[in-house]
Amino acid sequence: MSAGDSEQTVRDAAALREELIRRRLAGGRPAAPAGITPVDRTRPLPLSFGQRQMWFLNRLDPDAVEYLVPQLLRLRGELDTAALAAAVDGLVARHEILRTRYGLAGEEPVQLIDPAASGTLTTVDLTGLPAAERARLAEEQAHRQAVLPFDLEHEWPLRATLFRLAEDDHLFALTLHHIACDERSQELLTAELAARYAAFGQGPTAPLPPPALQYADYAAWQREAFRSQPAARKQLHYWKQQLSGIEPLALPVDRLRPAVRSTAGSAVRLAVPAEVADRLRALAGEHRTTLFTVLLAAFQAQLARWTGGTDITVGTVVNGRTRPELRDLVGYGINTLVLRTRWDGDPAFAELLPLVRGTVLDAFDRQDTPFAPLVDELQPERDLSVTPLFQTAFTLHDARIGELALGGIRAERVELPWQVAKFDLALQVAELADGSLGGQFEYATALFDAATVQRFAGHLTRLLAAVTDRPEAPLSTVELLDRAESAVVDRPVPGVVSEWDGRCVHEVFERQAASTPGAVAVTHEGVPLSYGELNARANRLARRLRELGVGAESLVGVC
Prior knowledge:
By secondary structure, this protein is of the alpha+beta class. It has 15 helices and 16 strands. β13 (425-431) and β14 form a beta hairpin.
């Protein structure tokens, strides 16, 4: 991310903070909960709400890999492997969360913190193999490690392997479990790893002092603050009202939803040119809001077009480090927010934007309510085929994880294939150095074909360009289809009635069946059915339903 991108991110965050501060001053801000202090390590250590959610999901499906956080780096140059091994051991020694396992005290999960130990980094020497085979074999093994589940009861949530390809060529694979980290943690660990590597051999003094707090201290404080603070109960009341009656989003999927949700996934790239991105930023400024809000409004508008609804719920994650002492804490510090926007009719984007802005501000002002107890309070209907409360997600990354700087070593990030889907559909966007926006649509392969999601990405890029050109135009007038799609929709089909003369659908169908009874109407699993045959079957079904007493306005279940 360039300096300009960083400045834009700072402006976005500052605008949001300014509005939230203005609200709190107007309404009176409740007293902050007491400070975070170290807890007694001789007593059972509870899990934070985020940890408990990760632990539960791991127990539910121990083989799931959707909450693994892998990184793969190609390191070129004269690497000091002893320094790297010592640096990794130093991370584990300094941060308890990296050497924590999870057991049970009665029926409650607890954190089990192990003493520090050396030997965290595993080294695999491949220099004895033919040169052409080394990189391929190293990447294959690294990919397998990236999707190897953790046994959280018996293993630490960190796995580090260094593949030696040559004297000056290595592949460094680092995988963490989400129960022990978030994006901020990755930034902290990357910076600390580099500092420890640089300090190796310069004496016994550690490059960083011990942390004032460990994650277990935060976890105990969070649970007590949520249980005892009036502000927490007030926030929970808001969320229960805001999300009451929420229904799963009816996305137009390519396949029937499986009875149990699959986490298998893939991704389709998204690219928004710098010129459009600049107009989006300008639109945000005109409406005194952020790029995040503008992109969320566009995403919700597109979901409305695809589903035909105007009650659109999207999930997002926020950095839950709202207190200064949590800024440099390694661990699971994020929280999930549910952003529900409702509207009537066919508003223009300029009219939808203030509604979404209000949704975002209300949610961020109440972001201290942990997601897991919120789900427990709302008790949505248990359905293993969908994620609770929302099925689509959106994230705007405000910064890239810092590059690993190891002296004169050149570190290049190696892309890992995307294989998981936490939700039906998730939009990830980041601001790039050239001012453009890049990202991807992550999708559940059990529901969508790649071609469908590629169309979805194309529709969003066209919508973003259109709403910056004509923000006052009704959303229904925004053209989402490209020329090829429009040609397919508009192309006349020989022998098929294409002009509507005011008749009902069944009357138009019967007219078509009378004029072309032998033409193929539908094909299912390779078996064609003509208009005449389909009309005959429909008439038989209609007569049978009438015999059973079904009349106008009766509800009939269709399997």
